[in-house]
Design goal:
Helix content is 46%, strand content 15%. The protein is an alpha/beta fold. It has two domains: 208 residues, P-loop containing nucleotide triphosphate hydrolases (Rossmann fold); 109 residues, Helicase, Ruva Protein, domain 3 (Orthogonal Bundle). The longest helix has 23 residues.
């Protein structure tokens, strides 16, 4: 891709992103950083895990995104008795054109562009694991058949904090498949008042489709062409190694409280998320601030605490913040 084409496509990327963001804000009160991070993940081809107590608008946000992006929408409401076939689909007996009985695969709600998995941690581990293949490879294997998901494809899942009754922790392998884990904060006083006014005293905002699936795919395909200096990749890799105890890069908090750190997927997330922020800022290369900007969302669910960390209720955000403080900023000088 030549520089002129890259510049033109970068401007389209930024314009489309901002149009989607502005349209979503019509129906979402507050949560500006949360909305931005959700869109960064979507434009990076990533899945999102939203965590918060009931009633904070997690499900509403996902529905708004599906309407604004003009994507087909599927929903799974997780309960302890939900089975994998309820998500993926199952074989049923049907008749062909000749009247002969045959097995036919009936697709489940997962076969949509955007899948909302509501309260994912109320499903049992067996059902949670049904999403492993589809989230990583975007395929569903049913017997000897392999079914490909439509493109673009995203999973946006919501979960309640583990302290809530009737929840099951997500397997580490599934957590790692989420691009971001975003915490949904409680609204401020001003936001609560505006929520009340919007939902009880006026008609809901009418939303328009501002981005097609093909346009979104085109935006996603630009990311591999965004340059990033090798020292910055080294800095991101240093952060990943720093999440693992007993490594030279690990600070004291990691050595004391962490059992296992982020995988190489965490590094991929840091780089891809940083590239999106680079484009949104109108720059041609990634900076170290872009990497630091995405670190919390990209790594908080990829750090597994040990027994001491669990016993003391250590927040993984605290671990990441100390890691960012202690990791030398040498890449910045080299890249400059």
């Amino acid at each position: 891709m030549n520089p002129a084409e890259f510049q033109a496509r970068s401007e389209v990327f930024r314009q489309k992103f901002n149009e989607v963001l502005a349209e979503v804000k019509k129906a979402i009160v507050g949560h500006e950083d949360l909305t931005m991070d959700c869109l960064v993940a979507i434009f990076s081809q990533g899945h999102v895990l939203l965590e918060g107590v009931p009633g904070l608008g997690k499900t509403h946000m996902v529905k708004v995104l599906s309407r604004v992006l003009g994507l087909s929408f599927g929903r799974v409401q997780c309960t302890p008795d939900l089975m994998p076939a309820d998500i993926l689909g199952t074989h049923i007996v049907a008749e062909d054109e000749t009247g002969r009985r045959v097995l036919r695969f009936e697709k489940g709600p997962v076969f949509r562009h955007l899948l909302l998995v509501d309260e994912i941690n109320r499903a049992t581990p067996k059902t949670q694991s049904a999403l492993l293949e589809v989230m990583q490879e975007q395929t569903v294997s049913a017997g000897s058949e392999t079914h490909v998901m439509p493109k673009p494809f995203f999973v946006l899942a919501t979960q309640n904090p583990l302290e809530m009754e009737g929840t099951y922790p997500l397997p580490e392998a599934q957590l790692d498949r989420f691009f971001y884990k975003l915490k949904v904060p409680f609204p401020s006083m001003e936001e609560l008042v505006e929520i009340s006014q919007r939902t009880t005293g006026s008609t809901p905002a009418e939303l328009s489709v501002v981005l097609s699936g093909d346009e979104l795919l085109s935006c996603q395909q630009l990311l591999p062409h965004v340059p990033i200096a090798e020292p910055l990749v080294t800095y991101a890799a240093t952060l990943i190694l720093g999440t693992h105890p007993k490594t030279p890069q690990a600070p004291s908090t990691v050595n004391r409280y962490v059992s296992y750190g982020a995988s190489p997927r965490g590094l991929q997330t840091l780089v891809r998320g940083a590239k999106v922020h680079c484009l949104l800022e109108g720059r041609t290369t990634v900076s170290i601030s872009d990497i630091r900007r995405v670190a919390l969302s990209a790594l908080r669910h990829r750090i597994i605490l040990n027994f001491e960390g669990e016993a003391e209720s250590v927040d993984t955000d605290r671990v990441i913040n100390e890691l960012l403080e202690k990791t030398p900023d040498v890449a910045n000088a080299k890249a400059a």
